[in-house]
Design a protein that fits this description.
The chain has 121 residues and is of the alpha+beta class. The chain has 3 helices and 5 strands. Helix 1 (4-16) packs antiparallel against helix 3 (103-120).
């Protein structure tokens, strides 16, 4: 029987196989790392905690404006794009892409991954 951890890790491995995702993680809404696929030297725990803080702040701001919950937060820089998405009431998914990556296919695959995470957690 496959464990929850193994199922989450498989979701991340499938995302990394897209080729444009450099780092990805699944975390609890309070920022505790559940599973990650990160390059050497990246602190997965810090990545998860700060991503949860960022998504939580965006959700609070949108709620205060009566605009509903955001489906995702995207941060763009010269070296990459950070995408953070809620994955149900208990989890979030965060991914870092290369700077020149088009987001169409990535967002589609992240949406599929979020749906899978919601079924597991």
């Amino acid at each position: 029987m496959t464990t929850t951890t193994e199922m989450l890790q498989e979701i991340l491995e499938n995302l990394k196989n897209l080729g444009s995702i450099e780092a990805c993680a699944i975390a609890s809404r309070d920022g505790l790392l559940m599973s990650s696929d990160m390059p050497e030297g990246i602190m997965g725990e810090t990545f998860a905690a700060m991503s949860a803080t960022m998504l939580g702040a965006a959700e609070t701001a949108a709620s205060e404006l009566n605009k509903g919950l955001p489906s995702r937060v995207i941060v763009e820089s010269k070296s990459g794009k950070l995408i953070c998405m809620g994955a149900g009431p208990k989890a979030l998914l965060v991914a870092m892409t290369e700077h020149d990556t088009g987001l169409g296919l990535i967002l589609l695959e992240l949406d599929k991954a979020v749906a899978s995470i919601k079924e597991i957690i």
